[in-house]
Amino acid sequence: MIDFEGWTCPAPLRDTPHVVAGHGGGGAMSADLVRHLIVPGYGDAGGTAERDCAVVEAGGARLAFTTDAYVVQPMFFPGGSIGDLAVNGTVNDLAMAGATPLFLSAAFILEEGTPLADLGRITAAMGAAATAAGVRLVTGDTKVVGHGSGDGVYLTTSGVGVVADGVEIEPRRAAAGDAVLISGDLGRHGVAVLSRREGLEFATTVASDTAPLHGLVAAMLATGADLHVLRDPTRGGLAAALNEIAATARVGVELTERDLPVPDGVADACHLLGLDPLQVANEGRLVAFVRPDQADDVLAAMRAHPYGTGARRIGTCVAGHPGMVVARTALGGTRVISMPIGEQLPRIC
Amino acid sequence: MKYLDEFSDPDLARSLLRQIHAATTRPWALMEVCGGQTHSIIRHGIDQLLPDGVEMIHGPGCPVCVTPLSVIDKALAIAARPGVIFCSFGDMLRVPGSGRDLFEVRSAGADVRVVYSPLDALGIARDNPDRQVVFFGIGFETTAPANALTVHQARRLGIRNFSLLVSHVLVPPAISAIMESPRCRVQGFLAAGHVCSVMGTSEYPSLSEKYGVPIVVTGFEPLDVLEGIRQAITQLEQGRHETRNAYPRAVPETGNPVARQMLADVFEVTDRAWRGIGTIPGSGWRLTDRYREFDAEHRFDVSGVRAAESALCRSGEVLQGLIKPHECAAFGRVCTPRQPLGATMVSSEGACAAYYAYRRVAG
């Protein structure tokens, strides 16, 4: 019998004494960097790192507060740009706590030689995305680094929103029996970006799914359902999102593979590139853990919203195999959906 | 994807499984040679659906896994040199050498790039005439034609700043080595379909004959794998041991004559060390004298690089089918995809990584 419980890295952060690309992959290496180096460094001044957004009380209000850095290459890709991502990504981090997003900041790190026209396209995209999301970009900063020290434009956005009383959406509330829902199909953003990456250009009709999701969340909350967990499966994809929730709540997750919506264009690209679509990033999707008796109402509300038309149930939260995500294959076997480690490595053949 | 989805059809798979169950009267041990097949078996849970007693032994056909440590250390040494652009398939980047991996060499400032084709590396060489561009040319007969073509092109176009670090390995000598191992339990082989789509099937009937084992040329989708298993078990139950082609849509009997001609021009047979197994005579390819100037080992003197394997790692026994990955004491404890001791834990086609990623929940 294999002891799955014992399967954590015995020596976190000792893989390498330096930062490597995998530390930014959104998988186990990223999580360990936060948990074992960054948060301990903060000491008593720090918080927990259970989710992408903090909910704090200030002046009698419940505030959601988040920050996110964007280093996407290329800066422009089918379906959007780094500007869309920087607004929608931060809006979504707030939305996953059930917050109504209000104000955003933006800090630019610009590389010498970057065309101002590119910067103009990015800020225009940010403005349009903020307007569409109903948030305001109220403060910011600009720095320039030398040629060769950056990839054009790096962006950091922070966001503040308010959380209504009674809304308690957090990973630790995932409970055995919960229905696991997804708001739409998987892998579009990651494949769209890869298709334009230097040296890898391939023709695809797949465009990024980047979208603000707080309206969808509001529609889900309006059903009166007690939403346990919401998570946007960005870096590391659905595999990372579900593994993090399973680990935090000490529950298992069982998926039915044939119910996982992977569009043909994404499946084909992943097949060719040797990637797992469940580990590919999404920027306009959310996964929800909902009480089973409320799942149908929530699904109906999601499907009635423009960003949830493809919503469906993909699995169930279970008490068995805590911390582990398992999928039943089409042939009737099972496989473990593991936490991605660092960067996805394309297979050789 | 057209021509792939059809070969994952669950109803047809269940029908094949029924046939396999009906045909099986006693235990059999089959080896799937290729890592892609291992991946498919574990990924789809096929091993859990076979009759009790039918055991799939995971063979040495993962190119990343069998590339010897000394070659990886040479790659790390070359990649770390100033002025070098080192290009590789992605899953070689995390394979541990004696000290570190290519990711770490890259984080220390080396120019290490992931490419999907050796021809991309040649393009990089053309665009960077003042740099030395090296491609890590590993793999079986499957990846060899593209590498051969690239070196051929480099010579034709006069791109002298390109070279190939070669560690090609060949399937038929590995089958012989496995069958001649005193601890061998393998009773039948699923041969690697894509190797045969290049080389054809003519090398295998003599192996079937000599060792008395059925060899079924098999593809990679679930139905392909199940059909390979079905044919192998049918032969075993009937006391036959023949080479059969269960992957005719990709494998003509003569393979790919154009590719074979290119291979014969660029490569010659050599003894080759296999990680975890040892040196198998005549089991690899190296560049012929005509192309020696494109050999990275020749261009960069790395003859002094010596390497030692982890004493805890039993990947050699895994690669020979002597133990299952989880029977190694290091598996999942000190050896994980995150911190692999051996290459079988690195590549997603490696048996240990496949077990780690996809193993069903115990019980």
UniProtKB/TrEMBL annotation, chain A:
It holds the Pfam family AIRS. Residues 176-321 form the PurM-like C-terminal domain. CDD domains: HypE. Residues 51-163 form the PurM-like N-terminal domain. It comes from the Bacteria. Coiled coil: none annotated. Belongs to the HypE family. This is Hydrogenase expression/formation protein HypE. It comes from Actinoplanes flavus. The gene is hypE.
TrEMBL record, chain B:
Transmembrane segments: none annotated. InterPro entries: Hyd_form_HypD, HypD_1, HypD_2_sf. Pfam families: HypD. Keywords: Iron, Metal-binding. Coiled coil: none annotated. The keyword Iron applies. The keyword Iron applies. Belongs to the HypD family. This is Hydrogenase formation protein HypD. It comes from Actinoplanes flavus. The gene is hypD.
